[in-house]
Structure formats: C-alpha cells, structure tokens
Amino acid sequence: MSNWVSFNEACKDLDSVIEAVPTMVDAYWHRHLVHVSRGALHTALNDLTNIIRHNQNQPRVYLARAEIYRKQGDITGAILNYSQALKRDADNAETYYKRAALFEEKGDVLLALEDYTAANRLCPSNTIAILKKRKI
Known about the structure:
The structure is a single chain. This protein has helices at residues 2-20, 25-38, 41-54, 59-71, 75-88, 93-106, 109-122, 127-135. It is an all-alpha fold.
C-alpha cells in the first residue's frame, strides 16, 4: 500500500510542476514512468505525446511509446514508433532488432530481414540477429 501512496504523491507533485510549467518535458517523462508502473498505459501514452508536442527529437520517447504499443498488442503502432526512433537515432541496433521481430510477427519477411541485417551490421556480435536472419 505504501507504494501506491508514493506513486500518488509523485503524480501530484508532477501534476503541480506540469501545471506551473507545461513545457517541462522531464516532468511528463517521470509522470509517464509512474503511470507505466501502475499499469495506466493509456495515460502514460498521453504524457509521451505531450513530450513530442514540445520536443520531437527524443528517440527515447518514441521507444517508450513503441514498448507500450507492443504491450497493448498494437504491432503497427509499435512499428511506427520504432521507425520514428530510428529516424532520430539510426545507429541503435536494439531498435532495429525489436522492429524486425515485429515485422517478422506480422509476416513482413523482407522488412524483417532488412532490420535484422541492419542490427547485425551495427552490432556484429548480436548472435540472435544473425540466427534470426538465417532462419528467414
């Protein structure tokens, strides 16, 4: 029960900061983390969307959105957000790998193969990407 009290207090504090300074993206970021830990994924997505409204150049925000969409079973939403993250950080092998896995799940084999190849190029020691690439 004390965790819930701490989460509620944290949310109230963050709400106050956001109300006072609506452009404070760090407050939205931390509040989204509280919402994720409570399972309030839709509310967490709203906070991440607010961050994007103020600053579109943060790949971690798109990665966080992709993970939430993936958890919700929205593969297309996850892929779109991984793609946005890669536009901002094209050297992230893990993001290519995660997007490849979703393409593979959707049956988009060629796109999956491209991403596994990119992940392997960026991180040659990623044996999982190598094995996935051979499997396809």
